[in-house]
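Reopening: DYW domain-containing protein still failing for me.
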Amino acid sequence: LSPPPPLAQNPTQNPKTLAIFAKFQLTPLRIMLGFPSMELQLTPLRSLPLHYRTTTKATATATANTVSACSVESQALKPRPQLPRQAPFHSRRRSSPVHFPSLCAAIERLVAEGRHREACDALRDARAGAPFVALPASTYDALVTAASALREAGSAAGVLWHMESSGFQPDQYMWNRVLGMYLVCGMLAEAREVFDGMPTRSRVTWGVMMGGLVDAKRPRGALALFRELWEELGVGAGPRVVVVAVRAATVLGSVHAGRELHCCVAKMGMCEDQYLPCALIDMYSKCGRIDEARRVFDGIPWRSVVAWNTMLAVYSLHGRSEEALDLYHHMCESGAGLDQFTFSTMLRIFSRLGLLEHAKQIHAGLIQSGLQMDIVGNTALVDLYCKWGQMEDARHVFERMPSRNLISWNALIAGYGYHGMGSKAIEMFERLLAEGIAPNHVTFLGVLNACRFSGFIDKGKRIFQLMTQNPKTKPRAMHYACVIELFGRQGLLDEAYSVIRKSPVTPTANMWGALLTAGRMNKNIQLARLAAEQLLAMEPQKVNNYIVLLNLYMNSGKRDEALTVVSTLKRAGLSMSAACSWITVKKKDHRFFFNDSLNPKSSEIYQRLDTLMEVIKELGYVIEEDELLPDILPDEQKTLKMFHSEKLAVAFGLISTSPSAPLTINQSHRLCHDCHNVIKFVTQVTKREITVRDASRFHHFKLGTCSCGDYCKNTAK
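Support: Ran it again with your exact input. Result attached.
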């Protein structure tokens, strides 16, 4: 058949054709079919998966027939010439790559600058200008990077469509890149098609496919692929592929599969590989087999810093801080180099163990070595200094951080709050908002705690209202508990009870506990009893709830009700365990209990305590008698409170350290009113700084004042 005569009107200008395009929202793409007067507008194939392309070609043929019929109504119908059938992709004749220096260079430059969206848009220009002309391999490599970064299936399919249409022949490297692109974009079926259709597959190819399945939460598929590879290559599979298989077993949580892979490693003799033993250690750790992880570590012939760090992370993850500390000492003795990950892990360990001096030493060593701490390590250091009352050091580290994330801000804000520095906490919160960082629930909890500890009721209301206005930060039970206690501390009991009644969340033990605290602070027996009934029903085995109720009855002179609570405790088989306070002197912990006489320096401790009590009485100290505490049983209430464990720890610190050294006391219970008052007088007399970390917060005593602003005198726990 001879070609039809030229059309009288360009089909793309025909009103009916334009209506068809508008109806189906077709994107313009000019494709020359070999006839100068005939152009069509088709949907780009770049946005379609591979298995739709045959269907698309048929659709294009049907559209061409429709256009011809609409535009040449007066002419007799003639057979439409058939398009030449393209050869399969792998057998198609390779076209000569025509370089577009400016466009290709622009695409590669955009990708290098991280402007991936603009790079993919530039590909559309290349397709419009010369759809069947191959681009350089470096440009395709850049486009694969851009599509992978965008994680869009349309962009990924467009890149491969252009390769196919232009006749570009990828090498092994480019095939692996395309495979990884499809996997990153979530196109698992298309990726499998590419994987199965590749002319050759290297071990890297298998690793890429398996890794993509693991990342897509398909660990069983990855292990099935490894079995195929093992049957095909056996010991020639290579350690990197085995690492991916071990990672699949880790995600699956199958210690059985992990042990089988461990056997494969032993058969292949890959134990000397740097990363494979680390993957096995991590797998055993995630499966809860810590001892087996340690055996793998001990079996490594030579241990890199990565192996040491992996084992340290295992101990840290499972709370084995003492074993992590022992391993760290062995690491230092072995001469292995320390890196940022080592410092970050050990800072968390030192924080748990309360080894502030060790943390300071490792921080100094980090500075001397010239290593730059990463954002995780810096945040851990800020958190450590905050937990141990070193707020100036925490702020110094925070300000010197090269970059910060929201966790860094939250650590500092929470630290200021717990140390009674509410003004600085709010200042940091406002600075965070000014820098355009969106706060989360942890941020609001930290700043609300700061308002609660510092008594900033108006600012607390404003911040809570700001939180409720944002749908992404709707208050949770812990935020309501802060507001309830904030109202209760100011005597606003109606508002506190209204919060718990109108709360959209189901009241929790923390919320009822805050209301109980409010009732006790204001000696409102009815409100406190209501909260206590709810609280004891939810937590009948928690002794502290009974202690709060005991304090309330005793402070109100209701001895009979207090005895009833004690009887309830006995019937429930509960008892108040003796509280403990301890102080670290010369890297050794010294523990004290109520009326303790086990310390070798007991006589000196009590002698110094007697002297201090006489001096502070002359300054106006008066003992408080109306409080029941967890370290004193009810029948011991008349015993002098000078024998409390925290007082003994302070006296020991005074006789065991230099006259100007600050003291840090840790205790398992809340600091009582009387001890709080005594320590204030002691700092006034001795000119010492004393920090007490109790069960709820820090207290910094200096020259007769406390950072909490005497907040503890109005608390119930």
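The longest strand covers residues 580-585. If you still see a failure, please send the error message rather than a screenshot.
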